[in-house]
Amino acid sequence: MYSERVMDHFSNPRNVGELQNANGIAEVGNAKCGDIMKMYLYIENDIIKEVSFRTFGCGAAIATSSIATEMIKGKTIKEALELTNKAVVEALDGLPPVKVHCSVLAEEALKTAILNYLTKEGREEEFKIKKCSGCCNSCSGH
Known about the structure:
alpha+beta; Sufe protein. Chain: A; three-stranded antiparallel beta sheet
């Protein structure tokens, strides 16, 4: 069963859509379940000023995308890189174990979008970005 917060973010997702002025973009997917998440960031002076997403997937994938965007908006790159899939799950008041992989997708999309931005800026070496926190064993990042 899903928590009220999961249902709220699924039914009323925040920050949905393509961000026209994005300077950091990532598209990630999970081959096992077919979920695809695209994240858009607009970063200025190392602060995430705008963030949006488009997700094709289940309710948990949409909810994790939505809450992750809320959790990083206004944060510095360094602060945003500290976001883990565990924090996403906690912010949603939990997910069923079979849906934890959706939170990993949100973390991976964020980190890949930041890396995309830093690469365009020629600054990819400034941050050591590990795409997956490695706690649910559902991705290939282990």
